[in-house]
Design brief:
The structure holds two protein chains of two kinds. Chain A is an all-alpha fold. Chain A contains eight helices and no strands. By secondary structure, chain B is mostly helical. Classes of the chains: A mainly alpha, B mainly alpha.
């Protein structure tokens, strides 16, 4: 339940790009790039649901949730790199938008990409231990950076108006981003008030490999959907 | 105790300040340079738009306007008029992209909407004030 509901909400944003708004006359590279961008948004929203904190379901050890969070973060960074790389490769004119006079939507996208690289790098164990005195300090700083990435990403999606152009799509995007921002706090609040399990079961140990597999499955599903979408459009 | 609280608050505060600085830099940089910044070279196929009423795009067709522009092209006129220069990008995207999107939504044949290279040429010999074909 904890895993599925936020993921469904995140997935609904991903599905926005499948909503047919007439023929968009986009080339295969652009379609692929846009799908990579939406996959990145999906992985980013999933990161707000799977924050690394152990959840009641599945009843696995903390390593599972931490590994899943880490792998989803790298998948997010990979999708962002593919999204930006493909557009710049087929349309180098987009580099003009990196000048201060460029379109604000693209500039916020570039800022989001920059922060998307910085945030997981700051979370690397060696860097984290050197920079932050306590785990709480790291958590707050990491949460703020993540919210900045999400805010800038949603602004980029809405302002560029490639797929998200209708008012209900815009408000859905903003709404889901706001829910994602308060989700970790809400999750923590709910977990603190949930009764502890007394059936004698212990959390299953050594489940990091399951997290890696789950992240792999999510990547495969994303890649498969991208191919199906591009074939359907052409 | 107070020192510990201060130390704990330092990382989030520095993060907020850094993020605010980054976004303020983006917004301020954009505002300061949008009127004078680098333009993306543009190719406009005038003949392809021959079927449309001139006043659809040329608002000065029936009522000429005084312009400080040195080149008599749409972009040069808007670029060199101080009041219009900061919003030139939004205005032209709205005019071209908006019209193409409308046509698409009516199920009619329309020009490019999203891909930069369809309107913005890769050729470096095209001047910033555009070229008509």
């Amino acid at each position: 339940m904890f895993l599925i509901l936020p993921l469904c909400a995140a997935y609904s944003v991903f599905l926005l790009c499948f909503w047919s708004c007439g023929v968009m006359h986009l080339s295969t590279a652009w379609e692929g790039s846009m799908l990579c961008g939406f996959s990145a948004l999906f992985f980013l929203l999933a990161l707000f649901a799977l924050t690394g904190r152990p959840l009641p379901e599945p009843f696995f050890d903390g390593r599972f949730f931490l590994t899943l969070h880490r792998w989803l973060a790298w998948l997010f960074v990979g999708c962002v790199a593919l999204h930006a790389g493909m557009v710049i490769w087929v349309d180098p004119q987009t580099l003009y938008d990196l000048w201060p006079s460029g379109a604000p939507g693209m500039q916020f996208g570039a800022a989001a990409a920059l922060l998307a690289v910085i945030t997981p790098c700051l979370a690397l164990q060696r860097v984290r231990r050197g920079l932050y005195a306590t785990a709480a300090m790291f958590r707050r700083s990491h949460a703020l950076l993540a919210m900045a990435v999400l805010g800038a990403s949603v602004f980029h999606v809405v302002a560029t108006r490639v797929h998200v152009a209708r008012w209900w799509q815009v408000w859905m995007c903003i709404g889901i981003a706001v829910v994602a921002c308060v989700l970790p706090v809400g999750e923590r609040w709910l977990l603190a008030r949930m009764p502890a399990r007394h059936d004698g079961r212990r959390r299953r140990l050594h489940t990091a490999y399951l997290a890696r597999r789950l992240a792999g499955i999510m990547l495969c599903v994303g890649a498969f959907e991208t191919v199906v979408f591009v074939l359907w459009r052409h | 105790m107070a020192a510990l609280t201060l130390r704990r608050a330092m990382a989030p505060v520095l993060t907020v300040v850094g993020l605010a600085g980054l976004f303020a830099l983006l917004v301020a940089g954009h505002r300061m340079t949008v009127a004078t910044g680098q333009d993306i070279p543009l190719v406009f196929h005038h003949r392809a738009h021959g079927g449309y009423n001139c006043v659809t795009c040329h608002h000065d067709f029936l009522r000429p306007v005084v312009t400080p522009a040195t080149h008599r092209t749409c972009i040069a006129c808007h670029k060199e008029t101080p009041q219009l220069a900061p919003i030139i990008r939004d205005q032209f995207h709205e005019l071209c992209e908006g019209c193409h999107l409308n046509l698409q939504q009516q199920g009619r044949q329309a020009g490019p909407v999203h891909e930069c290279r369809d309107c913005h040429a890769r050729r470096p010999d095209i001047p910033a004030h555009g070229r008509l074909f």
